[in-house]
Amino acid sequence: MSNEEKHNKKESMRNNLIQRQGEAKVVRKIVSLTAIILVITVGIIAAGGYFYLNSALKPVDPKDQTEKSVEIPIGSSVSGIGQVLEDNGIIKDARVFKYYVKLRNESGFMAGTYNLKPSMTMGEITESLKTGNIEQEVVFKITVPEGKQLQQIAGIIGEKTGQSGEEVFDQLNDEKFIKSMIKKYPSILTEEILAEDILNPLEGYLFPATYDYFTEEPTVEEVVTPMLDKTNAVIKEFSAEMEAQDYTPHTLLTMASLIEEEATAQVDRDQIASVFFNRLDIDMPLQTDPTVLYAHGEHKSRTLYEDLKIDSPYNTYKYNGLTPGPIANAGVTSIEATLYPAETEFLYFLATPSGEVLFSKTLDEHNVKKNEHITNQ
């Protein structure tokens, strides 16, 4: 290669290098400019969001002292309450209200008619909804005792609302109604309650408590909504432990209902739970009489040997494991016993006529106690 060719080659390489350096500078400028624009854009959005939230959290009109009558329906969710408040001009944005309530962990809002003002702060509004500044008076109360079954609860509702228990029971088992409740309470009512073997989908989900009602003739939905609200709240309290033990609301309430139906005293429940879990651990049938009576759809004080022959997945003498669903409504004590059973080696328990519960490790020991306290009665 001649000296001239070598010179030209070097010159070409130098020109290419200069060109690439120039291109690199242009790219760096574009990247820098893009980054600056992005930062500015994010800053504008963040600032806009901050100013919007700050404005939405302030009173609609600090000078407007006009009282507005605002009705919060029974069973309203936080989103529903927020929308009612927004529609009535008490707050600026229902979504902001929802986030405010969630972040501050506010709860205990009550249904009723409230006198609220556009000048009220978000804190004043939530306190009013919690303290119950309600114009309406309680028209009647419904008390649902622990251990009641859906059919019995339907009877209680019927007596208070002027309907027949059969009509209420039929609506509580209506497929369209059940699906509407699943949609309303997706965290507790899942597709599990629609399984083929389930006798009554809402069995065990109407929480035992006393409920206030503010209208003379509420619908069945309006009656059971606070009951489902209560169940939802109780389940939420135990959500961390449920997740740790791999419980769904359905399995938790199913086991709790068996404990509830067998327990004769609050102190026995964790030990009864231990018996059930010990049996499940060795694949032994639970053999609990209330499940047999539930399969028969009967309420009686004693289960006969003839009753045990019924071919039903609820018959825990015939089929191992839990029943397809709850057989009654369980209280908090039975739910706690399910989550925190006693540590025992008991496989049997016997409820005596006096109400005492006797526990045994072996069948022979159980039979001796049975002969002493039951057979000879």
UniProtKB/TrEMBL annotation:
Highest taxon listed in the record's lineage: Bacteria
Q: Where is this site: Important for catalytic activity?
A: E262
Could you tell me where this protein is found in the cell? Cell membrane
Q: Which UniProt keywords apply?
A: Cell membrane, Cell wall biogenesis/degradation, Lyase, Membrane, Transmembrane, Transmembrane helix
Q: Which reaction does it catalyse?
A: a peptidoglycan chain = a peptidoglycan chain with N-acetyl-1,6-anhydromuramyl-[peptide] at the reducing end + a peptidoglycan chain with N-acetylglucosamine at the non-reducing end
Q: What is its EC number?
A: 4.2.2.29
The UniProt entry lists the main location of this chain as membrane
Q: What class of enzyme is it?
A: lyase
Transmembrane residue ranges: 30-53
Describe its function: Functions as a peptidoglycan terminase that cleaves nascent peptidoglycan strands endolytically to terminate their elongation.
Provide the protein name.
Answer: Endolytic murein transglycosylase
